[in-house]
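Run folding on both entries below.
>entry_1
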Amino acid sequence: MTDVVANGGVMSGILRQCARVPGRIAIVVGDRSLTYRELDSASEALARQLAARGVRPGQVVLIHQRQSVETVVGMIAALRLGAAWCVIEPGHPVVQLRALLGDIDCGAIVFGSTDPKTSPESVRDLARRAGGRVPALHDLDADHPPVAEPADLPEDVLAGIAAYVITTSGSTGVPKAVVASRANVANMVDGRDYDYDDGDLVTFSAFRLTWDGSLLKTLWALCTGGTSVLPDARELMDAEAVAALARTWQSTHLVATPSFYRLLLPHLTPLRERLRLVTLAGEALPGTLVEQHRATLPGVPLSNEYGPTETTVSCLAHPVRDVPASIAPIGRPLGASTAHVLDAKLVEVPYGTVGDLYVGGPQISEGYASRPAATAARFVADPFAARPGARMYHTGDLARVDAHGDIEFCGRFDGQVKVRGARVERHAVEAVLESHPAIHQAVVLATADEHGETALTAFWVPAAAATVLPTPRDLIAHCAERLVAQAVPDRFLALGALPLAPSSKVDEAALRRLLPSGGGGVA
């Protein structure tokens, strides 16, 4: 156990390692690395530069750049300043960025001018197009004069102050900004009880830093003196390159989504004797992938972790020992987290009965920035907690407790599905498609591809006035401008009309029968 809660939080934990093992490699992103000494120096310098530009504790530092070592330096610098970080990659839809900046108190946008995608002109234009107050701009690649009167960085920051802001998938076009406090993050790190040896810990996170799954192993490693490795922007979508990076650094702990792990696995055989744990998170873990893991990396422990963004990365875990018939359980609460499967009256349902999954404990985030109604709707009073005022989060996931006491995921109640780690509301994707002038009606279904992974198929009916029908490439471009990548359908099928069931609702079963493979459904 790292015990960062009792020792000042994550920032204090990282600084202790900077003093304890200054020459050890702390962070690797792609082909670049920083020792703990270098991470300490770079993050302190940036924190002081941001303070000189007027960034105050409690504000948000927007890190707008493609994934690199500088991204991590920006995150740590924000923490040192008493601010929160929010990582946004170039290409983020402007509509969504405008909504984000409207919800948060952004003190500065940090970017790198040597990247054509984040040139000073493009960032200024982005800030203007986002509307409202334009925050300070800080170019990481420019030569900045030393701060004449360096402001003192806060030594103690209240645990309730925000550590980071991360957006939900934004499939509706207006993402919500989830605010995680320093106490949330500290409790998340303390909940990790992974086995490791000091001086021989190398975690590998096959994730984008825009997603909170990247923090699952990264912050834990930095608080224990380990080395945290992530792919850079060029490698992120190349499974062979990502696996090569994991092999180069002889990773001991690896985390990925099941979808991407399926692509990584054939390249990981050389790590068979090195890996101490593989953690999969972000979407359902199918039994077929468990079988492939056991065949390729026999003896390497496999863990399935679960946690909505609103519960700070992950809060439940299941050590996968047996091959599940369909998908692996999501397990039991980690650390001080709690989990309950409840009925509509917030009463626990009997074992084996499907109910709504609620998660409680100190990892429950502060809620949605500037959206009190949305926060109140999903963050409710926890009747099971001893502490007055405690809350639990209504995940929107259906679940049941099996005979072994493990929680099983049973799908979503609100039309949302998980696609490559992101929550996507299919009805919102339909609305985007129907905004195309050539489309009259659209239905989006979650189906299973040849590997059993979740994919989206869009069925659409042309508008009566349409003279030229859009191609799949046209529709992909239309969706990509308005949705996150995971919400863009994988297939598009044009129909003369949508089939209706006797209830006058769209007959989804009939639509699935139109798919070439029979269209396996996904809960």
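>entry_2
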Amino acid sequence: MQTKNFILMDIDYVTRNRKPVIRLFGKLLENNEQKHIIVLDKHFKHYIYVIPHDIDVCLDELKKLNILKWKKIYKNDGELVKEVLKVIFNHPQDIPKFVEKARNLKSVKEIREYDIPFYRRYLIDKGLSPMNMVEVHGRILSENSSTCIFQAKKPPTPQKSSLPELKVLSFDMEIYNPQNTAKPGQNSIIIISFSSNQGFKKVFSTKKSGMNFVETVTNEKELLEKFVETIKSQNPDFILGYNSDNFDFPYIRDRAAKLGVTLKIGVDESELEFTQISGKNAAMIRGRIHIDLYPYIRRYLQLNHHTLKHAYKELFEVEKLDIPQEDIHTYWEEGKDKSDQLFRYSLDDAKSITQIGEKMLPLSIELTRIVGQPLFEVARMASGRHVEWYLIKKSFEYGNLVPNTALSSELARRKDIHVVGGYVKKPVQGLHENIVYFDFKSLYPSIIISKNISPDSLTHNTELDCHISPEYGHKFRKEPVGFIPSAIGKILQDRMRIKSLMKESIDKRQYQILDTEQKALKRLANTIYGLYNHDSFRWYSLECSEAITAWGRYFLKKTMEYAEKKGFKPVYADTDGFFATYK
């Protein structure tokens, strides 16, 4: 039996002999080789939880359905501890049919965690986080210069390790568009450019050039074959594009289909695939993490225009080479000098994507390690989904049942409910001197922790020792610590620990890594409070949301009153801080 250590990059599952097999895609950490590994684990079985009215009657009824086995266990559900049935299945595909039948049984009160996908369940239960190191024991099934196929004999285990440099390959392409359109059925691809973070730079073109970074091919079919060949030979861990989910990859797929080119660019020799994440198109490459940087820029940078040109200027304060899209065909047609400018422009696009990726990716990588879900999906999730998967992971660690997502009728009801936000004092008009700013440190997360605001600590029992919210009178038990405050508390503790390490660090690279970690934790902590009133949030609670903002308004107003007694004059306030003058 051999031992392999690798960075977990991605995960899925396949069916072999009618049984599910988890596939872990990773980057091997041995001999400084650019080699990938695919670990096969066939030992894990999917499961869900059934909450019965009467556990023995329920069990008799469930045995008639298609289940592998079951266990009676105890789980926390809010403030209660419940005896539930953990129902285990031969295959994840058996679960939807089971749930549909079981819901109609009178002995079944509720079914939980049936909507957690198999591969996510595996990560949570095994304590594995993508972009972290994993150790696995087993045997090699096959191996070549780029990929090792490995059969796990024991469940993989997480290991502590810093993240090594991973190989990034960015690409860009140009379309011949004399009518200023780009239709896959009509307009051909004329240039594909590549840039990596390890020095590789190449432009493939169907037009000749004397420039040393340009390689000429005979036609578009060969151009697409070079695209596939380059990805295979470079064997990257990441593939970056700019609007590649919605434009580049769909266009390449359609042109490849028209010309009979097979896009086998996955580590496992699988073809380019398309899926939906959060209702949006996503191009997926098995074993390689495809990241579309365009939605990153839209999410994190406030720009009038989110083109690659404007994003690069914002991040690096340098103008990049630019050719308007409507002029691409004229540069292509007008001769050597113009076409050489087009080649430089296309390569510069690919290089710019690499640089933007190196700047933007670390935060998402750190979020992935914290949240514990694949980076391909984390990169396309809204921040609220990051929090939800973090809490699902913590629920497993704490022995809690995860609440179900609300039904459509309840979601519709919640959409019409609005919670009063933070206190805002209109600016005092005029020119002010001697201005100071008072800012609460992590105000809302701190309120959640200090007042123990959580659905499982919310109570109507008047005899308990409680925190009572201003305005609404919502009561939250002081003990024990609620699930959400406990989870946020861990985030803030980790952030404070990391910021302390930053103060001690004298290594620039280590400082940057620590800074990215604390920013990721800050993002999670600052997102949680607003989710209590988000209609689809599993831990939705109107009372919690109202209490948080009520205490926020209370503390801000009280602090302003106290400041006035000390000689300050507030001139503007908003949510978690205020400006004041001092005489």
